[in-house]
Amino acid sequence: MLIAIAIMALGAVVLGAALGFASVKFKVDGDPLVDKIEAILPQTQCGQCGYPGCKPYAEAIAKGEADINLCPPGGAEGVGKLADLLGREAKPLDGVEKPPQVALIDENTCIGCTLCIQACPVDAIVGAAKQMHTIVESLCTGCELCLPPCPVECITMEPIQETVDTWKWKYPVVELKRVA
């Protein structure tokens, strides 16, 4: 009886390892077209396009369910890049183009309500209940989702000045791959 249990346990371990290996070996990555579209989008996760983030918007564009001109943070330049990638005609931006921006909290006015923290899709706001909050500027995408829930209106959006350190806002990061 003890030998049978040991054999069953060993079989379960071997089967589990085999299934685990198979799931890694045959893993299918996402749609390359969606990845290319998403790389063009500004990654603000703001929802101004009508989708809950840049990835769902990229998926809708790839399926032909969404127009390429719905992203105000991407602006006309983003529409042009999407048109070039997809071989479509560039349409005028549906919305008002906005420069890259970052949220700032007036520390003297903040009451620590945490509503902005809950609204931030990228966790760029740090603080605790009834304590002053602050923005981690390097994480802030400028989506403006923290503005509406703030009861004391202590958050403002400030344009990001283009410098060597902030150029990434204008140009998407391109991953280079070594060719053998």
From TrEMBL:
Signal peptide start-end: none
Which Gene Ontology cellular-component terms appear in the entry?
Answer: plasma membrane
Q: Signal: present as a keyword of the record?
A: no
- Boundaries of each 4Fe-4S domain copy? 29-88
The positions annotated for binding [4Fe-4S] cluster 1 are 46, 49, 54, 71
Q: Does the keyword ATP-binding apply?
A: no
Q: Where does [4Fe-4S] cluster 3 bind?
A: 120, 140, 143, 146
Reported EC number(s) for this entry are 7.-.-.-
| Cofactor binding, note field | Binds 3 [4Fe-4S] clusters.
Q: Which GO terms describe its biological process?
A: electron transport chain
InterPro entries under this entry?
4Fe-4S_dom, 4Fe4S_Fe-S-bd, 4Fe4S_Fe_S_CS, Elect_transpt_cplx_RnfB/RsxB, RnfB/RsxB_Proteobac, RnfB_subfamily
Q: Identify the residues that the record assigns to the 4Fe-4S ferredoxin-type domain, covering every copy.
A: 101-130, 131-160
Annotated residues that bind [4Fe-4S] cluster 2 are located at 110, 113, 116, 150
Taxonomically, which superkingdom?
Answer: Bacteria
MF terms from GO for this chain are: 4 iron, 4 sulfur cluster binding; electron transfer activity; metal ion binding
What NCBIfam families does UniProt report for this protein, alphabetically?
PRK05113.1, rnfB
Family, as annotated: Belongs to the 4Fe4S bacterial-type ferredoxin family. RnfB subfamily.
Its quaternary organisation is:
The complex is composed of six subunits: RnfA, RnfB, RnfC, RnfD, RnfE and RnfG.
Q: What does this protein do?
A: Part of a membrane-bound complex that couples electron transfer with translocation of ions across the membrane.
- Give the protein's recorded name: Ion-translocating oxidoreductase complex subunit B
